[in-house]
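Per reviewer request, we include the raw input and output of the structure prediction for the construct analysed in the revised manuscript.
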Amino acid sequence: MNVARTIPDFDTPVVEHARKDFPLLNAAMTVGEALERIRREGVGERVIYFYAVDEQKRLVGVVPTRRLLTAPLETALHEVMVRRVVAVPAKATLLDACEFFVLYKFLAFPVVDEQRRVIGIIDANLFAEEILEAGDTQDRTRETMPVDADFFEALGFRLEQIRGVSAWRAFRFRFPWLLVTVAGGTLSAILAGFFEATLAGSLIIAFFLTMVLGLNESVSMQSMSVTIHALRSVRVTWDWLASSFRRELSTAALLGISCGFVVCIIAWLWHDNVREAAVIGGSIALSLITACALGLVVPSLLHRLKLDPKIAAGPVTLASADFIALVIYFTSAWLVLK
């Protein structure tokens, strides 16, 4: 038997499933006063985070349990709380809340009304019951939360299954991103038209066009796949992005030089023209470097903007990488072979 049968409809309002047994802390309290309130009011069935409110009971911060337990008792609560809080709107559905868990990878979220007053808390345990089999739950009590990355990955897979129930909903979710590919292809066709004379004067440039784009797309997809996998367990910061960019740039340089050299030799042996071979090989080397960079930057930026990189990164990355590769390829041919 699968526990999923007991899980409510994902189209129901999230407020119907939010917990009410939680203490709210006043941001003006000290840590000692906050702990006293928690002892007096209790913590309910389960507490992952504590939330702080102002005089109007509006959400102003979240207090991680570790900070609350380790800070000096006289410390003001607003000094240890995190002011930037991600909250689920009261009008959201359970499916919307599921997307919050997949995107942000927190174990709980406050549910707030239009005035940002906390009216409930929804935690990951609700979704954990749906993706685990009954046999597994015998060794996992309700107090044991699945905090590893596998849980969020499984939840994301389940979310895609739910989305896939409606073909029209999947179409509306994916089609706008495919328009990016259409736009990129149109721009690439227009760009090729500007270099019609260059292509007519050196047909080998046209012959290797498919290889240039194929290598470019393959490298960008490799880089993008590695980045999306890394985004499951890291937070996108400038330091992480800079470190990853330096590493990816080094890999891209090696890939670009190696592939460019091999293709250059092939073109030279075929047509016995050093300048044409140099254009093809050099363009491949440069375009692969840009493709690797885009494979890192585009998914990271989409993740930072709270968009789904698994759906959006492919069309955006490939369209951008192809266009830049064609600019490099055609411009190099025009400059060297004119």
